[in-house]
Amino acid sequence: MNPSNVGIIGLGGMGQMMLADMRRHEGYFVAVAWDPDKKTRQVVQAHYPDLRMTSDAADLINNSAIDLVYVASPPKTHREYFLAAIAAGRHMLCEKPFGVDVTESEDLLERIEKAGIRNVINFNHGNALGSSHIEEQLRNSAIGNVAGVDVFIHLTKWPREFQKTATWLALRKQGGFTREMLSHWLYLTRRLFGDGTIVRAHVTFPDDGTSAATALTAELDFVAFHCLSKRRPAVPARLERNTRYGVPKYPIAFTVADALVPVMVAIGSSNLPRSRISVPETANEIWTAPLPFLAAPEPPCPTPRTGSQCKSLLKTY
Q1: Which residues pair with 148 in a beta bridge?
Q2: Nearest by Cα to 210 from 159, 160, 175, 163
Q3: In this structure, are 156 and 109 located in the same domain?
Q4: Which of 10, 91, 151, 214 is most open to solvent, judged by the fewest CB atoms within 10 Å of its CB?
Q5: CA 15 – CA 12 distance, rounded (Å)
Q6: What pTM value is reported for the model?
């Protein structure tokens, strides 16, 4: 199979991680890249001298040699690039969130589906071996009847170190760890247990009116069970106490704490109370670059429709 020629828009933390992964993956060849920041382009070019930098995003998208456009730019720019890709007939891989405004995202989703081009949203659990392993154990009833899930996310700094240049992540309009991190776990929970609805949610915002939330506690009902989601990042010092892990109420818990790559921990079930589900060491790897999907009959990774469903659930927050 010939590799897909890829053009990358956005060379921040995620863009550079995907670039490194794709260069190691036989299914991709990164042919060209672009970032609006000249200094960023120069840094990446120095690290990858053979990588061609293009003049702007439009030039990259309209390059007929490109099979796939990967977008790792701030969410408010996604619509512009998606519309350009639709017009050019380019397949797309895009970082989540799919968009910022739910109504605009639904309109864009309809345009994408009518265009008939391949589009994938990069939820990191969409292609994680650990996620697939737990899904298989659930399918085979290896962990008994699951009564619920706990999700705990604990951060002492936001944005995280590798995202420090992405200042928009600290702001309410586009950023925040609800969109940036919790969405990955909502995707995984929906994938494992079906659609969910919010029972209650409490969000804490700073008084400045522009900064992203500093804490969130929410309860959700899914098709299969009840889910308790607690997000207690300690950005200001007064929330430092919240960096401690919560006590899981339900048999399965996903826990993340100050890790560049989220760590998945699955605990207990009706058959295995408070015992860790067996996950092979190799299954803990989260491969950033999705499996090549252009030749597959159905995309093996999350689609914009999946991303839109997760976003609709998040909008209540």
Answers
A1: 226
A2: 175
A3: no
A4: 91
A5: 5
A6: 0.79
